[in-house]
Amino acid sequence: MLKTVRSLAAQPVAGQSLAAFRIAFGLLMLDEVVTLLQGGWLTRYYIDRELLFPYFGLEVPPLPAPWLHWLWALCGACCLLVALGAFYRLAIWGFNAIFIYFFLLDQALYLNHFYMIALFGLLLGFTDAHRCWSVDRRLGRIRGSPAVPRWNLLILQFQVEVVLVFAGLVKIEVDWLRGEPLRTWMLERTWSPFSDLFAAHWVGLAAPVLVILLHVVGAPLLLWSRTRLPVFLVYCAFHIANAHLFPIGVFPWMTIAATTILFTPDWPSALARRTGVVLKAACRAVPAASPLFRAAPWGVRLWRFVSGPAEANGEAPTAFRPLRPAALAVFAVYALVQIWLPVRDSVFEGHVGWTEEGQKFSWRMMLYSGAGDGRFIVEAPDGRVWVADTHAHLDALQSYLVFTKPEMMLHYVQWLKERHAAEGAGPVRIYADVGKSVNGKPWRRLVDPDTDLAAVGGMRWVGDEPWLLRPEWQQVADRRIPDWYPPITAARFVSMLGALSGGSRD
Description:
55% of the residues lie in helices and 6% in strands. The chain is of the alpha+beta class and 506 residues long.
């Protein structure tokens, strides 16, 4: 069986769909790099800030201001080379190194689509996406046919399905099914015609269920040829609506481009052949004196280039070596990690939207709207006590995040501890008086006020943080909320639906 899997993974297939995604990936990221560079993103979020919030155990040193700009510009050059398929290996791994470096610099800027881009970039780095439609091929740097081994597509198809399916599965929780925070966000967007729809109560309840069905049911249907195109068009409409409603940058367009990987490997040629008759007819209808008529031959050549057979040079498909067992094992481990990360919140006590344990890298997009506020009380060895002035060191976004994100809270406490030690205050103790609200629920205390956070070294990879309070379990004990909340598990899903139909007790 292992030998069969290795042989099937190495089977040559057309490289056109992979090349199309490579081109779209490079161009979309080039636009993102230029947009952020022109908007002063680096200066505002990296250079002007007094402190950054790296990930525990993954700290990287920030470069001086000029080098950050040059490094980001180099990332843009790598994006262009990736799109062109020029010096592809060097370009894609250069992009990966630079993008992941910026990703790790500050978790305050974490977004699911940045994580998704990093994964796509890494996977593209292992593929032969430059075997088709690339400058490398034109320059003779690529020999053989423009086919690629099937595993090049399979790993990307797997990643796309993981993103889409889990984006729906993680939404099967009580707040989302009650319409929050989607209803609140939509009613705030009075400039959009969609806002009026959510004024109707049934729309606020139906829309979240439809979003879940689109991902949980629609994503697998993209693998079936008969349903692939209509579901893809629904996904396109969904992502365009998201781009209209929410400032989520490149995410909708990158997801649409990535979803095309689920089509047949030669879909660009098939699409061009089906539209070829229309293009030829349009060229005949254009008057001879029109500039379009003079440009028509170039359009026909481009169409022939795209619609030509995969083996246009007459060569037989390149025979690829079977995937090595070690490589197959690496991909298997990668797949297991990608499946485990979105469900790892089940090993933590409490609701992920409250504790943030298991929140990152789990495709929990648009699920929580949190609010936090409080103060940090510093106690010096000589008995002096004062309240830290967070606004003196943090901007508005950072001030919000340190009161809602426990990991960032710990980073800030450690920074305060080191700062006061450098100023001669000695080994201070720091206590947090912090309240938080999630999706409009009542404010409750987030942190144990008697815990010295300066003595907490960092967040655990596995296991609950004892200094984080979990008020939901006390509410369960007081019978103020159902005993299945939180978290929502498959065994409790039927009870949840029954409680929703019978009314809420919290």
